[in-house]
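Note to self: the last two entries modelled the partners one at a time, which told us nothing about the interface. This time every component goes in together.
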Amino acid sequence: MGLMQDVRDFMALDGDGKRNQISQMIDDRVRIITAGLSLKELRALVRGDAPTERPNPRYKVHVASFIAHIRPKYYQKASTFFTHTFRFGYMSTLMFFVEIITGLILMIYYVPSPAEAYGSILDLQSNVMFGALMRDMHRFGAELMVVFVWLHLFRTYFTGSYKGERSFTWLTGVFLLLVTVFLSFSGYLLPWDQLAYWAVTIGTSMAEKGPMGNEVNLLVRGAPDIGAGALLRFYLAHVILLPLAGILILSIHYYKVSREHGISLPAYVEETDLPKAEVKELKRRIDFIPDLFTHEIFLACVSIFLLIVYTAYFYNAPLETHANPLATPLDTKAPWYFWWVQGMLKLGDPTLMGVILPGVFVVVLMAIPYIDRNPLRLAKNRPFAIAYGVFWIVALIVLSYMGLPEYGIETPPAVRIMQDLAPEEGVGDLRAIPFEQLEPGSYVVNETDPDDLPDELAAVFTEYQDRINEQEELGRLPNAQGLLFITDWQTDLKRVILRIEWTDTETNAPKEYEHEYYLHRDRRR
Amino acid sequence: MSSTRVQIEIALGALFVVLAAVLLLFLGFEEEDALASALDTQTAEKIEVGAHLFHANCARCHGEQGEGLIGPPLNDAAFFTTRIEEVGWPGTLEDYIISTVAVGRLVSTRPEQWPGEGYPAMPLWSVDYGGPLRNDEIEDIATFILNWEESATDGVVISVDRPPAPSSEDPLARGKAVFGAYGCAACHQLDDAGAVGVVGPTLNGIATTSETRLEGYTAEEYIIESIINTNAYIVEGYQENLMPQNFGDQMSEQELSDLVLYLLSQE
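The predicted structure of the combined assembly is written out below.
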């Protein structure tokens, strides 16, 4: 009865009356969805005009709407300067969302079992539209996220934005750093290739050296060695446990920033003598709706576009050969954000260097706001803190370099030469030679004239020759002889043999090291 | 922020969204070719891995070039055209290869021609049944074998170019290298060379045995004839037509001489 009466009343109105009634209904609907903003107000927002109503309906959105309640009502102008934040916190969060979206898509195709994981990645790259792009974006986005989180930490440290009421925010931030790093590490294992398997073996072997090492190792791997148990646990940690923990802690972290204490002002605004008018301008409110919100969307559009361009044309997520628990490749290394730990392991006892000291480092990082009693934030007012920060950055860089296989690891010269020319994993100079230039024949170092060879083959042969001669001159390969032998093996397949012979420095017995390589026309070059 | 800034950011943001959409559309047109190319690369790298695995595991019975030794040839036209029909295999040749490699052969289907290693004629390889190879490795071997199809002829022509033997001063060392390079270990036992083959007679102590094995032959003559004219004399209990008959053509004079000297040192 009520509806029929409403319809009758509506039809009784004249033209203008009907139009007003309809626009009123639309206006009501829009206000309900937008938590209080009318159509007129939305138009004003997009045009960047002032609010169309009093009181200003824009702030109320933050109270009435779920999604907008965690966003700030406003920030002070100076705290939004690019040179203060560099948008590192924003980019970290944006990368997190990119990872979630690309990750959800990848989950459709990936199978977390040792027998099928590698094959599912191959399938993704050769049989799924945009599969390679999704994987590249996910991998590169993960690297970027780790980078941005670290940069955000450094920025917050050097602007002293962890003091006072922000100390708990800093603490949650360090937890987020740990979540990010472990998200990256758990994802690292999933392709189940040699890179994944051995990098994670190095990383998790440190779990054994800690307190209750055996139990922790079994918890992480589900077995003494890395296998199906480890893969499944890492997968579940990667797609459920750590993302949920990350979202929870990020919400706590961000809520304090956006609703409690805001982004810090640059220290000079608070700690130098600026004219009052200037300070007033620097502290002027910049509203979230529309200004900050528009800026965020803008940054997202630009960043995602750049990300797609880069990953489509300039980046390929690495995929080595299938994981082989029986064969450790030469030059195995941990993921780059753990190189510093690998470097420390070369300095001494694994438990001390791999577990205790990194643990202390993390605890000290968390405790910085409680250790630092200096209430001032301007750089020149906190020289010790700045020096301490610079020292740690330099130390991390140096330790990371020490984590590389080039540092502190002796490889026999013949092995080193062949590994450099044709690494066990990856392409290398030898495999990059165009197929046609691999002319079958026997090429002897210091006898064959490189000028007789096609260009790229000649270049590799010359490098081979130079390296062998260099080692002979250094006395490490006495009486060295080198051979490069190429033969046709199958359709589009050639076999290359590298052999180095020398006299053992101690026993004077003849020694030889030989390696065979099969090179196909269509392989990656 | 000024109203202009909001408008500029909205416009630019929209522009980048459009650019991204156009880029993805563009990539979409090329995607099928990109996928096909990725598949070619993956197949190429499977063949490379398969070649390496074949050399390490299969060549000792099937020959370096799949020409067949104690196991049947995998590189001749008959294998690609008639084999699966011959045995009544209902599936593809690839599946035939994979299943044979995975499970092995308890009994040879052609024991007079290709006896293999006796019982079982061919070992099993898949980890699923306790063997040493993963299933993806077996697939790689199958991909490698299938790559012979294009060049397979009736009757395999073996023309394996071998690298020159190490230029050691010591003929015994060179001879030992020849022993290794020509796959003698596939069929013969020789402790000094770490060879454990059982298809042919043991070569432990061959220098002594060959002195008296055949009347009218010195040890050296016996060994030389065994290598280059393999069917002239078959040791009792072993089969004829198993030892490759073309070593004489394959080996150089120097290689043969070194090998014989090496064997003559095995007392």
